[in-house]
């Protein structure tokens, strides 16, 4: 019974990123029971269109029996063995080889972990290891960006640039410098303006110089910033950031935890923006969330101290390359290829989502609609001309989000905006339903203001 589950949850379960007083005030969490395609059902039988693919991760959609079958077979055969020291197993070998075939040229070696946070921690250890093995241990600073989200471990939270994540003593740890993101809405700029693209990229150089170029190990960024509010790079941004990294010899880490595995219409966001990363981190869509697994891919430059020199890199997780997770990831990649989900995103889903949301541009609450591939954001504003936000205390975005939930649509509020990242399998009709529900909620919140 729902009420019993809710009471037990309130009594014992600590939720990530949750205001527990608010949760208790609402009588406990909504209990999600099952899913199919882009749809979820709760314990009271209500159906929800999942406009967020869980946490930007259920790329192939819910309810794929093949993945359960693969997991079961792998558990029966070899439920666990580690990849430390000198052992390996079929699923991890096959997955490494498969990823090397999909990754942009040059990224040939893959290390596995369980979460995006661990992948980003690993990336930082790898790039710092690279410079230390090259006799430059002072090159340890990582340039990241304000508003970014890179995970929740102490290091990943430090890499992130959300003020709320730094509101705990000891975070950010030393050695992280944050640059301004290419956030046109906040900067009062036009997203399509190449001049803004150049200026935004120059913010990365400013951060490098602030840190001291000789102390910088790497720059980390998502091709399109996701949880930070779907911050889409303006024209020329990535080309110039790449040039800046090259000029200072700084390694470039692409966090592909959200952009990877089809969300941008290519296997990786780096391919959509012609970025040449030295290191790439991935998670979420690697298994479409069916198993916890993440990976870090590196090029020959970063791999050289690991592969060609005597000595070991003291880093790894008990479940690095877990056989069941690796087998499930492989099946997930098979499904993506078999169903041509990248093509579906490019030809159907992304155009439907972007044009559908664009119809809300003139809504009195909406200041901007932006997106890339199958992620999008609506920026809400109290005044379109000045881009003035609503009073954050009475967050209008949160009200729209909550009403959407009641009317059967999952979205997420980020600052005074709403973000969308549905499963890649979403159909044109389902996008239509998403837009219809969203519009009715915007209308009613607007009317009630
Ligand atoms: N990097 C990005 C871009 C993310 O969006 C996230 C999670 O949302 C992470 C890293 C952290 O991944 P995880 O929650 O698996 O640790």
TrEMBL record:
The keyword Glycosyltransferase does not apply. GO terms for molecular function: pyridoxal phosphate binding; transaminase activity. InterPro entries: Aminotrans_3 (IPR005814), Aminotrans_3_PPA_site (IPR049704), PyrdxlP-dep_Trfase (IPR015424), PyrdxlP-dep_Trfase_major (IPR015421), PyrdxlP-dep_Trfase_small (IPR015422). It holds the Pfam family Aminotran_3. Its cofactor is pyridoxal 5'-phosphate. It comes from the Bacteria. Keywords: Aminotransferase, Pyridoxal phosphate, Transferase. Belongs to the class-III pyridoxal-phosphate-dependent aminotransferase family. This is Putrescine aminotransferase. It comes from Salinihabitans flavidus.
């Amino acid at each position: 019974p729902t009420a019993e589950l809710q009471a037990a949850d309130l009594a014992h379960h600590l939720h990530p990123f949750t205001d527990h007083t608010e949760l208790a005030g609402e009588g406990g969490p909504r209990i999600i029971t099952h899913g199919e395609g882009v749809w979820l059902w709760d314990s009271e039988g209500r159906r929800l269109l999942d406009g967020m693919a869980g946490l930007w991760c259920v790329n192939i959609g819910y309810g794929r029996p093949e993945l359960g079958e693969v997991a079961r077979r792998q558990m029966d055969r070899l439920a666990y063995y580690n990849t430390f020291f000198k052992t390996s197993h079929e699923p991890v070998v096959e997955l490494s080889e498969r990823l090397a075939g999909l990754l942009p040229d040059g990224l040939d070696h893959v290390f596995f972990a369980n979460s995006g946070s661990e992948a980003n921690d690993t990336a930082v250890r790898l790039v710092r290891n690279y410079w230390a093995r090259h006799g430059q241990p002072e090159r340890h600073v990582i340039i990241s960006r304000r508003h970014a989200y890179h995970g929740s471990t102490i290091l990943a939270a430090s890499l992130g640039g959300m003020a709320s994540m730094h509101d705990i003593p000891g975070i950010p740890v030393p050695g992280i410098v944050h640059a301004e993101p290419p956030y046109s809405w906040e900067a009062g700029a036009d997203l399509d303006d190449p001049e803004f693209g150049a200026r935004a990229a120059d913010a990365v150089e400013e951060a490098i110089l602030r840190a001291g170029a000789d102390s910088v190990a790497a720059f980390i960024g998502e091709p399109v910033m996701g949880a930070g509010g779907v911050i889409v790079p303006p024209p020329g941004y990535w080309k110039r950031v790449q040039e800046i990294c090259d000029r200072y010899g700084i390694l470039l880490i692409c966090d592909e935890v959200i952009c990877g595995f089809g969300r941008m219409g290519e296997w990786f966001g780096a391919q959509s923006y012609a970025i040449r990363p030295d290191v790439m981190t991935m998670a979420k869509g690697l298994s479409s969330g069916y198993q916890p697994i993440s990976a870090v891919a590196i090029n020959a430059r970063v791999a050289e101290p690991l592969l060609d020199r005597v000595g070991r890199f003291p880093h790894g997780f008990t479940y690095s390359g877990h056989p069941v997770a690796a087998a499930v990831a492989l099946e997930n990649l098979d499904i993506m290829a078999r169903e041509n989900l990248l093509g579906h995103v490019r030809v159907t889903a992304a155009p439907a989502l972007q044009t559908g949301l664009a119809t809300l541009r003139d809504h009195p609450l909406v200041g901007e609609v932006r997106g890339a591939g199958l992620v999008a954001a609506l920026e809400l504003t109290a005044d379109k001309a000045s881009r003035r936000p609503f009073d954050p205390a009475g967050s209008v975005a949160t009200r729209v989000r909550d009403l959407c939930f009641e009317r059967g649509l999952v979205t997420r509020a980020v600052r005074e905006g709403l973000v969308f990242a549905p499963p890649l399998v979403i159909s044109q009709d389902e996008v239509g339903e998403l837009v219809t529900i969203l519009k009715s909620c915007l209308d009613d919140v607007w009317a009630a203001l």
